[in-house]
């Protein structure tokens, strides 16, 4: 799942800065519902990653039943923290 494809699918645009708060919230809600229904491991991780970047990701123990997936998500969070200089 391509990042731009996710943005278009859930928010109707690749530029989140153009969204109203209501449109952003609606896209996040749509993404959270689809995340809960998604069975493909890679697609779930891609959606969780974007939700994390938007500050709306479910907790790791809720999002991922598999310990390997939780570890990958922790690594992603660490990389994003480093990139942000935290």
Q: Layout of SSEs?
A:
Elements (H helix, E strand, L loop, with lengths): L2 H9 L9 H17 L3 H13 L6 H4 L3 H17 L3
Helix pairs in contact: 2-3, 3-5
Overview of this protein structure:
The chain is mainly α and 86 residues long. It has one domain (3-83). It is 70% helix and 0% strand. The chain has helices spanning 3-11, 21-37, 41-53, 60-63, 67-83.
Class per helix and strand makeup: mainly alpha
Spatial shape: globular
What's the number of extended β-strand segments?
Answer: 0
Mean pLDDT: 93
Note poorly predicted spans. Answer: none
Helix content: 55-70%
Count of DSSP H/I helices: 5
Distance N to C terminus: 28 Å
* Rg over CA atoms: 13 Å
Q: Could you give a short description of this structure?
A:
This protein has 86 residues and is mainly alpha-helical. Helices cover 70% and strands 0% of the residues. The protein is built from 5 helices and no strands.
Which short descriptors sum up this protein?
86 residues; mainly alpha
């Amino acid at each position: 799942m391509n990042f731009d494809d996710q943005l278009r699918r859930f928010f109707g645009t690749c530029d989140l800065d153009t969204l109203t708060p209501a449109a952003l919230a609606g896209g996040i809600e749509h993404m959270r519902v689809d995340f809960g229904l998604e069975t493909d491991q890679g697609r779930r991780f891609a959606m969780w990653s974007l939700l994390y970047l938007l500050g709306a990701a479910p907790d790791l123990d809720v999002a991922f039943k598999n310990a390997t997936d939780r570890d990958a998500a922790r690594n992603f969070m660490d990389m994003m923290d480093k990139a942000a200089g935290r």
